[in-house]
Specification:
With about 290 residues, the chain is α/β, with parallel strands linked by helices. It folds into 2 domains: about 40 residues, no CATH class; about 200 residues, 3-Layer(aba) Sandwich (Rossmann fold), CATH 3.40.50.1240. It has 7 helices and 6 strands; from the N terminus they run αααβαβαβαβαββ. Strands 3-2-4-1-5-6 form a 6-stranded mixed beta sheet, with helices on both faces. Strand 2, helix 5 and strand 3 form a beta-alpha-beta unit. The longest helix has 23 residues. It catalyses: O-phospho-L-seryl-[protein] + H2O = L-seryl-[protein] + phosphate; O-phospho-L-threonyl-[protein] + H2O = L-threonyl-[protein] + phosphate.
């Protein structure tokens, strides 16, 4: 446990250092080519090609000289380090649950939450995806959502990876600040863990991957919203500005070049209107 804590804290510190470096980088001062403004573009507008530390040029030993043999060596290693196929990461938020009791063990899906998960499972089945990997948060509501989805798609339950890094939490203080919600202690406790989960699951394909891959992650609203901001290289502090429905589908694609695009963001259009929810019901009266 002590080693894991050190790793997670180190990850968070590295993330903070990365932000500071981006803000101080003099090369970030480019200009708006689409306006007459002389003001530099915000550093966040520049795409970091080595965001996942898998840019081939960062993995290959630099040229030592200009000799043909050395150039051939460099080009061969560079080609060998390149990803060839895309990775598709599909994120599903858990279904609606009732927040009663003092522990996660009592936070079960509502009847409506189970129906939401059933519709999501059917939708994923209709997409005809052959899953390479399925990962689920270890929290009860995510586990129950995953179990319902598994009944609709072709994947062995025994192969599902249960990951505690994906548990719900507060990833980073939001901007603009929210006056009624200030879990300062939660940011310190959860932020590094959630960032570590991002680094674990979001990266371009390995060079030996010979076909496009599909990973399904069943998790939580805050975590998914943070992942979206990080993957698209939007300011991570903006995660709370995004709203996604229960059991909705978010689809991100990481190309071999490392570019990231979003196909779905909180898609729940496959559900009937009476099943669309995004907040936790506060009492049993509001549960379907």
């Amino acid at each position: 446990m002590r080693k894991l804590t050190s790793f997670v804290c180190g990850t968070g510190a590295g993330f903070a250092a990365y932000y500071l470096q981006r803000l101080r980088d003099p090369q970030a001062a480019v200009h708006n080519s689409w306006t007459n403004s002389d003001k530099p573009v915000d550093p966040w507008a520049l795409w970091d090609t080595n965001w996942d530390c898998r840019e081939p040029r960062a993995l290959v030993r630099p040229l030592r000289n200009s000799q043909p043999e050395e150039e051939n060596r460099y080009n061969a290693e560079l080609e060998k380090a390149k990803a060839k196929k895309a990775r598709h990461i599909i994120l599903v938020r858990h279904g609606e649950y009732l927040d009663v009791g003092d522990s996660d063990d009592t936070h079960h899906l509502t009847d409506r939450g189970r129906k939401q998960a059933e519709f999501t499972g059917k939708r994923l089945s209709e997409l005809g995806i052959k899953w390479d990997k399925i990962v689920a948060s270890t929290m009860v509501r995510a586990q129950e959502t995953s179990d319902i989805i598994l009944k609709q798609i072709e994947f062995e339950k025994e192969k599902v990876v249960n990951c505690a890094f994906l548990r719900e939490g507060a990833p980073i203080p939001p901007q603009p600040p929210v006056g009624h919600w200030k879990p300062e202690a939660s940011f310190l406790r959860d932020g590094s863990r959630i960032e570590a989960a991002f680094r674990r699951y979001f990266h371009r394909a390995y060079p030996d991957q010979e076909k496009e891959s599909y990973t399904l992650i069943v998790g939580h609203g805050n975590v998914i919203r943070y992942f979206v901001c990080r993957a698209l290289q939007f300011p991570a502090e903006g995660w709370l500005r995004i709203s996604i429905n229960h059991a909705s589908i978010t689809w991100l694609t990481i190309s071999p070049s490392g570019n990231v695009s979003i196909k779905y963001l909180g898609d729940s259009g496959f559900m009937p209107p009476e099943l669309l929810t995004n907040r936790i019901p506060r009492d049993v009266k509001n549960v379907v």
